[in-house]
């Protein structure tokens, strides 16, 4: 703790609404005066609206303290309730035992208390804090409380205090009747630099600080700028600054310490880091919100899907290969021993021997890059003449120009008495550029 180091008797920048530390700047004094004036003139409904952290609750405690000896007061801050619970909270704050009471019975009890206070010549003041959380049905019940009145006097003065959302609720068309009954709307504005400076001095003085110069001028200006004049933000900055100053053994809080505190309290880097983590997880296919076991199951599912897809592709390729091989002729590289038998099939002969099954089976070779029909004939049959060329053209009727042979093109070199349709289909497919390119792959 920095209390001993800075010689303080108590915490100057606490988080509780201690009325001793309430600094009534010009804006807070104006709001307090408006609340008191509206109550004294029996205006019925008053509304106090301020941003979070503006010291609204502390101001309400000060307002209730002013009326402690002059009126009967009730303070309700639990506003996440229905109409019956709301009336119960009011009676409990007044010290009434509500066990076993239904809503009509509680209304009768409240009416009796209001009548007693009127006869005693005292006002009844009801303060509702955090009123922006009240549902419309409960707000309508609050409006009906204004019916407790006499021809000349309102028996209950009600203060609706809340954040800016309360203004939105009251401005809705469904709340027009309640809005018409609110005679004064009081606002708490942020503190300016002079008020921030006086606010810090007031709290240090109340905590027993003998040196208000503990915070330098530069530090105070930075606090006023970064806090936006909101007392709760000022408290957070000053508390952390004095804690850091004590750790660093600094007798004064300067601008550098405030900058360090601002950086420590900044949540944006943490939000950016969280965004980067989520983005990285999304790119990697991992959901950061999924527990570990579910992540493993998700990873297994993705791997299984990949394996299934790969298997399907392999099966498709295998089926395609089977279909092609079933239609294509057997491709051979014509060895020297086969040249003789092949040439016998091409050269006319008087032999009456029946052709063998091997001779009747179509045989083909695949043209190598740069090869011509002449080279193929010489390598395969040992010669190239008009007779050989005519025979090859009969076996390969799709050869429109024998001098133009594509690399990879199939050339039928042996056949039966005629070119079978099966061989013709294979040869035609080989002459197709798309099929040829697929064969290269």
Question: What features would you describe in this structure?
Answer:
By secondary structure, this protein is of the alpha/beta class. The protein folds into 4 domains: about 25-190, 3-Layer(aba) Sandwich (Rossmann fold), CATH 3.40.50.300; about 195-265, Helicase, Ruva Protein, domain 3 (Orthogonal Bundle), CATH 1.10.8.60; about 285-320; about 330-350 and about 355-440, no CATH class. It has 19 helices and 10 strands. It has a 5-stranded parallel sheet with strand order 2-3-6-1-7, with helices on both faces. The protein has a 3-stranded mixed sheet with strand order 8-9-10. The protein is elongated.
SSE topology:
Elements: H1 26-40, E1 45-50, H2 56-66, E2 71-76, H3 83-93, H4 103-119, E3 123-128, H5 136-145, E4 149-150, E5 153-154, E6 157-162, H6 164-171, H7 176-181, E7 182-188, H8 193-206, H9 217-227, H10 231-247, H11 255-265, H12 268-283, H13 292-327, E8 330-331, H14 336-346, H15 357-360, E9 363-366, H16 373-381, H17 386-395, E10 410-414, H18 421-431, H19 433-440
Parallel strand pairs: 1-6, 1-7, 2-3, 3-6, 8-9
Antiparallel strand pairs: 4-5, 9-10
Helix pairs in contact: 1-2, 3-4, 8-9, 9-10, 9-11, 10-11
């Amino acid at each position: 703790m920095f209390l001993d180091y800075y010689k303080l008797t108590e915490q100057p920048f606490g988080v509780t609404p201690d009325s001793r530390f309430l600094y009534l700047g010009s804006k807070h004094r104006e709001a307090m005066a408006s609340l008191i004036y509206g109550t004294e003139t029996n205006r019925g409904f008053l509304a106090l609206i301020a941003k979070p952290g503006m010291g609204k609750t502390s101001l309400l405690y000060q307002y209730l303290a002013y009326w402690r000896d002059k009126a009967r007061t009730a303070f309700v801050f639990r506003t996440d309730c229905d109409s019956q619970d709301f009336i119960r909270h009011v009676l409990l704050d007044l010290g009434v035992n509500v066990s076993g009471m239904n809503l009509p019975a509680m209304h009768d009890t409240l009416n009796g208390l209001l009548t007693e206070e009127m006869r005693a010549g005292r006002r009844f003041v009801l303060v509702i804090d955090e009123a922006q959380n009240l549902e419309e049905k409960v707000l309508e019940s609050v409006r009906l409380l204004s019916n407790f009145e006499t021809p000349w006097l309102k028996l209950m003065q009600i203060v609706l205090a809340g954040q800016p959302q309360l203004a939105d609720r009251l401005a809705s068309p469904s709340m027009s009747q309640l809005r018409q009954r609110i005679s004064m709307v009081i606002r708490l504005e942020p503190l300016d630099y002079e008020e921030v400076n006086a606010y810090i001095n007031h709290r240090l003085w109340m905590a027993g600080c003998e040196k208000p110069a503990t915070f330098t001028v530069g530090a105070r200006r930075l606090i006023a700028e970064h806090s936006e004049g909101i007392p709760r933000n000022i408290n957070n900055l000053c508390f952390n600054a004095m804690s850091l100053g004590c750790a660093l053994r600094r007798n004064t809080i300067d601008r550098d310490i405030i900058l360090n505190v601002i950086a420590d309290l900044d949540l944006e880097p943490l939000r950016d880091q969280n965004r980067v983590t989520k983005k990285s997880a999304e790119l990697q296919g991992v959901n950061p919100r999924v527990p570990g076991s579910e992540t493993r199951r998700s990873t297994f599912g993705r791997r299984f899907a990949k394996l299934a897809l790969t298997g399907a592709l392999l099966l498709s390729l295998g089926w395609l290969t089977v279909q092609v091989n079933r239609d294509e002729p057997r491709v051979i590289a014509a060895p020297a021993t086969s040249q003789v038998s092949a040439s016998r099939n091409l050269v006319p002969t008087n032999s009456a021997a029946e052709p063998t099954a091997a001779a009747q089976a179509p045989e083909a070779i695949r043209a190598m890059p740069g090869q011509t029909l002449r080279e193929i004939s010489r390598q395969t049959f040992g010669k190239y003449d008009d007779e050989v060329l005519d025979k090859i053209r009969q076996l390969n009727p799709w050869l429109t120009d024998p001098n133009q042979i594509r690399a990879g093109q199939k050339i039928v070199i042996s056949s039966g008495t005629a070119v079978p349709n099966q061989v013709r289909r294979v040869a035609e497919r080989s002459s197709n550029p798309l099929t040829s390119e697929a064969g290269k792959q």
